[in-house]
Amino acid sequence: MTNYQIYSHDVLVIGSGGAGLRAAIEASAAGASVAVICRSLLGKAHTVMAEGGVAAALGNVDDRDNWKVHFADTMRGGQYLNNWRMAELHAKEAPARVKELEAWGAVFDRTDDGRILQRNFGGHKYPRLAHVGDRTGLEMIRTLQDYVIHEKVDIYQEYTIISLLKEEGRVVGAFGYDREKGLFKVFQAKAIIIATGGMGRIYKISSNSWDCTGGGISLAYHAGAELIDMEFVQFHPTGMVWPPSVRGLLITEGVRGEGGVLRNNQGRRFMFDDIPELYKGQTSTDEEEGWRYTQGDKNAKRPPELLTRDHVARCITREIKEGRGSPHGGVFLDIAWIKEKISNAPEHIKRKLPSMYHQFKELAGVDITKEPMEVGPTTHYIMGGVRVDADTQMTNIEGLFAAGECAAGLHGANRLGGNSLSDLLVFGQRAGEFAAKYAKGTTIGKINDEQLKEISAWALSAFDKGSMSGSENPFQIQTDLQEEMQKLVGIVRTEIELTEAIQKIKDFGLRITKAGCSGNRAYNPGWHTALELKHMITVAEAIARAALERKESRGGHFREDYEQKSDAFGKVNIAIRKNSDGSMELKHVPKLKIRDDLQQIIEEMK
Amino acid sequence: MPKVIFNIWRTSSTGGEFQEYKTEITEGMVVLDAIHQIQAESANDMAVRWNCKAGKCGSCSAEINGRPKLMCMTRMSDLPEGKPVTIQPMKAFPVIKDLVTDVSVNFRIKKKIKRFKPRPPDAPDGTWRMDQGDIDRIQEFRKCIECFLCQDVCHVIREHHLEEKFAGPRHLVYAAALEMHPLDIEDRRDDLKSQHGIGFCNITKCCTTVCPEGIHITDNAIIPLKERIADKFYDPLMRFFRIFSK
Predict the structure, then answer these.
(1) Residue A348 catalytic?
(2) Which of A533, A556, B2, B95 would staple A232 via disulfide (CB 3.0–4.6 Å)?
(3) Strands ordered across the beta sheet of A261-263
């Protein structure tokens, strides 16, 4: 083989957020030799930013909760486009995964009798989110990180994978480089788990970390994996809107869970104006009752601020569009008002929402215990991603697995808050288990030398282009792409804009062939960005095409030209594959028929 | 809008030097925004490590006008107006390139600290009971985002380069979170005294001053650990007792 450094493992995990680390721990426990590729340093992945909590029907705060209620809530939240088997496994296994974290040293907030405390969140019938103030993600990633470093797992920090390697229909490895020196590396593996998270960075206003460029989704797609549900992007209703440099930064749903309310510039709680049919039975129409719900009154119904994220985001968008927004183009989120209700409100807020207090104080000069926050929607999550088998997390490619945000199925058309942290634990564990099992039954595959030469030549061509006339600045292309996606493939979509978006993305495809960089290969952000653009454009195209294809409004996908749900589209997921000529092929895949006992649970809980 | 001068450390084949850049500053910008803008406008290959830009991941640690800070949490409006801004990598760690340092030593030190070891579960379903009051303190320690600014500012490491003998503030906070964990039954006091060199800390509290999470590193973590060690090794009554219990 050409003189690249080669590493060989049974299981290669690409991605070191919650799903990747959980998968690595499981695969290692099953006896596999495991490598984890971290694009950044260990413990810095986007999971660290998760705030509100991890959803699991522990029933610690309300003993009426159990897996069936969680399952029904998840399906309702996903507008029944979810993979029902994943929703079932998730609801059943999440409690065990959370308890396991406690056994590994996680320190969740407590109930009065010393058990794990759970809080209310949008779309969850009972208080269900185990949490640590508003820094649950940090607690989870640190617990997993501090566990994995003592296991037999090789951790490669600041490595970037640029391509998967295949031979005779199965994955045999991955090709990438270390950031420090920029040297190419070959990772041979019997099984590969993609756990690279989301794609928020293809939008201008996003709550996502630097890492979230859709890299893993694109790697899998180019290797022949099928994607589904790519039209379903979650715009979180509450991101910061001011000052401009922090626009999009997340404000946890926990603010509303703790009693925070949304108001327009007339002081009206506009969420009461539009309560969707599916949720009428469980939503309060009375402000006082809503407050009691947030304070744990089991007989009260939830306030409309805690409706699902897709709906709240659209209501906020409507208020802003119709001129009832805040001075900087958002609406008001007020937690300070609870001083009318409880005596030590400022201390209470600081204890329950420490990061939010800190974030507004430091970055916006706003004291949230005294004044309302200005908030607006921000790109937060993609429900879609790589299509996987519910039980094993294997993709349609032999030996290739996916887990966490980059995989699809659990959340359907809209994800409930807190279901992402439980998703990555449940399916990270499963991916690790089944990848290790798969690896045991197979041998190390052969790496194709020609393929490596081709990829490395492509990767290095960015340096040649950098010195040519007419070369493009990769950062500029990235910014332009983010602007266009924000404008044309945002919360409210139309055929005209989506068609325009697809054309623009094609143009970006030409522009990136001219993206050049200067300097040398060592820790070079220009080079890194130039290589990354391919992924960003692939994912952008998949989202735009799927969004154009789904001629209805459902969950995170809202079409102004098809405002209603359609029965026909309610029966299918949209799948995307790469054609042999390199183009994107879309097809409608009928939903799997749900098991009778699960359908019955849904009916009972309606 | 005003243009501000930045003097940024850039490495070169012969070592490195400060280079001057000018960029426009708009309302609300933090230092990391300015760095990104400079990178996009005129220094595509300038290395900077960052992830969340929200003060949660602890990646963008650097020295701004000589003070160890997170670039994402330092607002331009808090720096002296009209004066150039100096940005250099953390001094206590070897430079990889420009503003990026090699912090791998921290991952090696952490691995040497004995892992969490819980007592048997309290309830038949495999769970434990803990009082919120008993975990408040370690929840403070667990806020740590591993930015390593405390390691950077600690003179034992920064001036005397004793990182092989002294674990440093971050790792003492980590050890304290384990030692004070209500469920943990491991004893790390021997290691803290010998291997992790807690005695090197002479409580100047520089680490506490720079902690972006406001953790009371010295008062709440290091001093109580020192007391526990003193109780074990230097308490005369206990010494007496040990002689006879051998």
Answers:
(1) no
(2) A556
(3) A233-240, A373-382, A331-334, A261-263
